[in-house]
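User: I'll paste a sequence; please echo it back and then give the predicted structure.

Assistant: Echoing your sequence first, then the prediction.
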Amino acid sequence: MNITQVSECDQSGRYVYHYCASISNRNDVLSGIAQLPFRIVSKEDLDMLKKYASTDDYKVIGILSLTYLGREFE
């Protein structure tokens, strides 16, 4: 699941973040843009971001950096 394809929620007024994450079983990092229907304010929110950024091929085990870019209005 791509993080920008979260379709089960209302996508108006999404919070936009840039993230850098570490990937399990690899010595790699992943970075991307996240458009989320919720604001990240807690560890549970970070865990949700890790879930959305993970795929069948890799699992995000930690968020190394997170930058709030603003809010998107459609």
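The helical segments are 43-53. The first strand starts at residue 14 and ends at 23.
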